[in-house]
């Protein structure tokens, strides 16, 4: 059970990834098993494969029932295909299963005992507690005589290992050298997986010391007697709809990559060449310059073949350079675009948002699952856009057109823009996806808005009170009144539509002037209804 | 207008001067206008107005349209004024000067409808003992005998209009001059 960790999930149902973590694949509709038993509250959800973890996000309670599994903890994987009613499964064998049997040692290791040799009076130390039953009895480091328990009994001093933290101090990040808390498994600064963290986790005291109460898993009660000591260390991911082959392969690959990455930190990291022979050099990509077809015989043919080769190489290099230049100019363009947008956002006093996940079209096998993911992403984006607004007055509202532009501009650069139709379809899915805070609302039967609950009514009342207290307002004044405090939370577009709506409902009357239309509260001509 | 104190507070409500886009509201707005016009005419004893909203007849009335409120600088556009007149004629609260047409350039303002004027005139005939006598229209509208009556001062053409319902009930006969204009009546 302790292999499952709590994972932070945004209200939109997207896991919050660590710094430097990348998502690789998403699989819909899966269930989780701890060894052979079902985990009851994790039976319907999505599973994300990232470069560091396998994250399960529950469909019903994404923020509560979501768990993750570190890829580092996985020893090996196995795939079992669909058989009759049994759905396809990915079995993940965990590391550290063998450590489990030494449950006695676990207690001992943390304790040191000191005793003084009755012969030479040297104080010796040993791991574990020294008792009558300790076999074999320790040997004095000075005189090499095994101790006799009866003789050393009085000098035995058993102390708990308080130096635990000292070993933890070595929990420094291999990438940025930040010294992390010993129980942290990922660097706080850069998110790199900590090598000591992994080792420590298998050390029993850490599992005893810290139990994350946020992980609440209910196991299915199997009638068969389960011997707790002999439980196999594996978990299963059951694919309810798909065959999960792709996910299995991707997991296998990322495990392999992780292993490789682990190796590279051990030996010859960032090594370019050994004895003049380049490392990691891909020979298959060497230029195919050897011409084997010779038309002529003798030296002439060799010469002409050589010339041909040189010519071809020249062309190749030239085109390569042009391509490179094009690429560079594109990169510059994109950078400029980003910089411009960033400056604008900072100018508005907002934080630059970073996409949580990279939602790439190619990662999804069908349009529907892509749209589901996009919907969550949009939801998360819109919520964060509303956040400062929401803290102040509790409501947010944005036209789909504005949202579309904003979302594509800030979140979709580099991952492929989405079409307006896709955006709309995605927004229509909010309810199905259990995302309740925002709704697609239609004002005046024509303009689609993404609005939080009651925001429309709220805005209506606000406009009415402003127009009443000011004895008539034009659009500009209204905007200024509503957006006091500097932020542009109510756009002119929304206001125009709501005003239109109010006029149609008879709550506002207009006063058209050459200088513009003034809006007054309808105090003389009430409508009967 | 000069005597704004006699007009309701809605008269200085700026949206009154804009044709409201909402149909239901606009109907009420027009009703408000009709009430304003009637109230104004009762208080001013004004029987006729031009299509622009100027009172006609009284020489001492300031020549400013009722549809022009200089204190809040609002004017009703002519298109909307026409709409108000047309609605007023439909409800029988105004009558085009030229043969009762709705698009005439002047309107009689009827703060009572024609039938009610007719019965008021009949009441005068009965109370003053003038039944079965020939009474001129001039006498009816300007004569001393009607000075205390509400229809005193009514334009003669309008009096003739008001007598028409009596004619239909065969209570009155109109006596016309050679040009076909009613000059006298006899009520039986």
Automatic annotation (TrEMBL), chain A:
GO biological process annotation, one example: protein transport to vacuole involved in ubiquitin-dependent protein catabolic process via the multivesicular body sorting pathway
Keyword Protease: no
Oligomeric form and interacting partners: Component of the endosomal sorting complex required for transport II (ESCRT-II).
Pfam families: EAP30 (PF04157), Vps36-NZF-N (PF16988), Vps36_ESCRT-II (PF11605)
GLUE N-terminal domain mapped to chain residues: 7-267
Origin species: Torulaspora globosa
Protein name as it appears in the record: Vacuolar protein-sorting-associated protein 36
Localization (cell): Cytoplasm; Endosome
Physiological role: Component of the ESCRT-II complex (endosomal sorting complex required for transport II), which is required for multivesicular body (MVB) formation and sorting of endosomal cargo proteins into MVBs.
Upper taxonomic lineage: Eukaryota, Fungi, Dikarya, Ascomycota, Saccharomycotina
Keywords, in A-Z order: Cytoplasm, Endosome, Metal-binding, Protein transport, Transport, Zinc, Zinc-finger
UniProt similarity note: Belongs to the VPS36 family.
A single cellular component GO annotation: late endosome membrane
SUPFAM superfamilies the record matches: PH domain-like, Ran binding protein zinc finger-like, Winged helix' DNA-binding domain
Keyword hit for Calcium: no
Automatic annotation (TrEMBL), chain B:
Keyword Protein transport included in the entry's annotation: yes
GO term, biological process aspect, one: protein transport to vacuole involved in ubiquitin-dependent protein catabolic process via the multivesicular body sorting pathway
Species this protein is from: Torulaspora globosa
GO cellular component, one term: ESCRT II complex
Key words of the record: Protein transport, Transport
Protein name listed in UniProt: ESCRT-II complex subunit VPS25
Family recorded in the similarity comment: Belongs to the VPS25 family.
SUPFAM superfamilies xrefs: Winged helix' DNA-binding domain
InterPro entries associated with the record: ESCRT-II_cplx_Vps25-sub, ESCRT-II_cplx_Vps25-sub_N, WH-like_DNA-bd_sf, WH_DNA-bd_sf
UniProt GO MF annotations: protein homodimerization activity; structural molecule activity
């Amino acid at each position: 059970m302790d292999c499952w960790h709590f994972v932070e999930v945004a209200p939109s149902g997207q896991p919050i990834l660590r710094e430097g973590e990348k998502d690789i694949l998403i699989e819909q509709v899966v269930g989780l098993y701890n060894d052979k038993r079902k985990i009851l509250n994790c039976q319907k959800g999505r599973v994300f494969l990232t470069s560091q973890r396998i994250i399960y996000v529950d469909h019903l309670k994404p923020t509560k029932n979501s768990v993750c599994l570190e890829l580092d903890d996985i020893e090996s994987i196995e795939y079992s295909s669909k058989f009759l009613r049994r759905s396809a499964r990915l079995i993940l064998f965990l590391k550290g299963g063998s450590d489990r049997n030494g449950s006695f040692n676990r207690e001992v290791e943390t304790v040191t005992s000191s005793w003084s040799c009755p012969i030479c009076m040297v104080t010796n130390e040993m791991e574990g507690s020294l008792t009558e039953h300790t076999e074999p009895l320790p040997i004095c480091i000075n005189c090499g005589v095994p101790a006799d328990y009866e003789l050393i009994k009085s000098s035995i001093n058993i102390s708990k290992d308080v130096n635990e933290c000292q070993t933890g101090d070595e929990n420094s990040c291999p990438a940025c050298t930040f010294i992390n808390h010993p129980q942290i498994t990922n660097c706080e600064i850069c998110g790199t997986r900590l090598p000591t963290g992994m080792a420590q986790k298998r050390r029993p005291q850490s599992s005893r010391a810290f139990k994350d109460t946020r992980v609440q898993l209910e196991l299915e009660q199997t009638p068969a007697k389960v011997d707790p000591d002999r439980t196999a260390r594996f978990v299963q991911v059951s694919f309810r709809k798909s065959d999960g082959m792709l996910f299995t392969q991707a997991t296998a690959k990322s495990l392999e990559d992780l292993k490789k990455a682990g190796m590279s930190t051990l030996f010859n990291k960032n090594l370019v060449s050994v004895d003049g022979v380049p490392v990691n050099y891909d020979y298959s990509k060497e230029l195919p310059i050897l011409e084997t077809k010779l038309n002529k015989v003798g030296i002439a043919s060799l010469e002409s073949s050589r010339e041909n080769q040189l010519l071809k190489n020249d062309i190749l290099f030239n085109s390569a350079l042009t391509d490179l230049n094009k690429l560079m100019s594109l990169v510059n363009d994109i950078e400029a675009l980003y910089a411009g947008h960033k400056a604008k956002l900072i100018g508005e006093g907002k934080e630059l948002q970073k996409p949580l996940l990279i939602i790439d079209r190619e990662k999804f096998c069908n349009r529907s699952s892509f749209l589901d993911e996009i919907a969550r992403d949009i939801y998360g984006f819109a919520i964060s856009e509303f956040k400062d607004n929401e803290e102040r007055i509790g409501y947010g509202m944005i036209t789909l057109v504005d949202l579309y532009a904003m979302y594509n501009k800030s979140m979709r650069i580099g991952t492929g823009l989405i079409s307006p139709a896709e955006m709309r379809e995605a927004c229509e899915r909010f309810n199905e996806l259990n995302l309740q805070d925002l709704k697609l609302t239609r004002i005046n039967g024509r303009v689609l808005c993404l609005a939080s609950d009651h925001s429309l009514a709220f805005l209506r009342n606000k406009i009415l009170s402003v127009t009443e207290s000011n004895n008539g307002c034009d659009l500009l004044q209204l905007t200024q009144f509503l957006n006091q405090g500097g932020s542009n939370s109510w756009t002119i577009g929304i206001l125009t539509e709501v005003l239109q709506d109010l006029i149609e409902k008879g709550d506002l009357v207009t006063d058209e002037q050459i200088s513009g239309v003034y809006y007054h509260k309808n105090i003389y001509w009430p409508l009967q209804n | 207008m000069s005597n704004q104190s006699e007009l309701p507070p809605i008269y200085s409500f700026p949206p009154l001067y804009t044709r409201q886009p909402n149909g239901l509201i606009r109907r009420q707005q027009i009703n408000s206008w009709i009430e304003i016009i009637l109230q104004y005419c009762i208080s001013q004893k004004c029987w006729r107005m031009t299509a622009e909203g100027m009172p006609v007849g009284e020489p001492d009335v300031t020549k400013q349209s009722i549809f022009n409120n200089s204190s809040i600088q609002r004017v009703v556009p002519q298109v909307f004024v026409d709409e108000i007149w047309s609605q007023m004629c439909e409800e029988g609260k105004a009558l085009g000067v030229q043969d009762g047409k709705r698009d005439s350039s002047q309107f009689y303002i009827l703060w009572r409808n024609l039938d009610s004027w007719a019965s008021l005139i009949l009441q005068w005939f009965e109370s003053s003992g003038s039944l079965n006598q020939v009474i001129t229209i001039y006498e009816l509208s300007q004569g001393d005998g009607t000075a205390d009556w509400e229809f005193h001062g009514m334009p003669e053409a309008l009096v003739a209009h008001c007598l028409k319902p009596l004619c239909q009930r065969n209570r009155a006969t109109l006596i016309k001059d050679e040009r076909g204009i009613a000059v006298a009546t006899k009520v039986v």
